[in-house]
């Protein structure tokens, strides 16, 4: 393990991808039985309303977990494709009748312009800052011009590393970003349609949920 920090995050010399895959494989069944928090349902419903208003129907979910959101969007009339780093999460998505593939956010193996919407709830929270521009460019690439992208992550502070107090095993890697850092990161690829700071835990006032609806700038996919 790398250098210890007072905020409970440690820097790890190894790439976090393998540890994340193992952690979410092990936790897949438990997460499948968990009900989505009401505030998460709210931001999800808000994005669905935006999609319906603009007539978008081809949705890619990045970091789909066990497929609860994919099922929700399918019931809203969307044609949903799910990707996740965890093979076990992908298996659960497929059990629910969803098209799902094991795939990393930095390497989305779809043709350019395959989707008119992308949904990523807390998945880019695990992408290292050094790789975030790659993930954002991949999402931009698979979107049509003018397509919508929901990006939701916990943030409000500038911290990156393995969370030493994590209950998951292996412990997971997180990249928390300030509002300013996140907005600067998306600026090159997307226009901001909306940006909301959602309070999630009164015991951790430094943190909030960063809820963004973004639009790919209108140019060829």
Characterize the structure shown.
This protein is α/β, with parallel strands linked by helices. The protein has one domain (9-216): 3-Layer(aba) Sandwich (Rossmann fold). 32% of the residues lie in helices and 29% in strands. The protein is built from six helices and ten strands, in the order βααβαβαββαβββαββ. The strands form two sheets. A seven-stranded mixed β-sheet has the order 4-3-2-5-6-10-9, sandwiched between helices. Strands 1-7-8 form a three-stranded antiparallel β-sheet. The longest helix has 17 residues, at 38-54. The radius of gyration is 17 Å and the shape is globular. The model is unreliable at 1-13 (pLDDT under 50).
How would you sum up this structure in a few lines?
With 221 residues, the chain is α/β, with parallel strands linked by helices. It has 6 helices and 10 strands. The N terminus is likely disordered.
Name the features:
single chain; 221 residues; alpha/beta; Rossmann fold; 7-stranded mixed sheet; 10 strands; 32% helix; globular; disordered N terminus
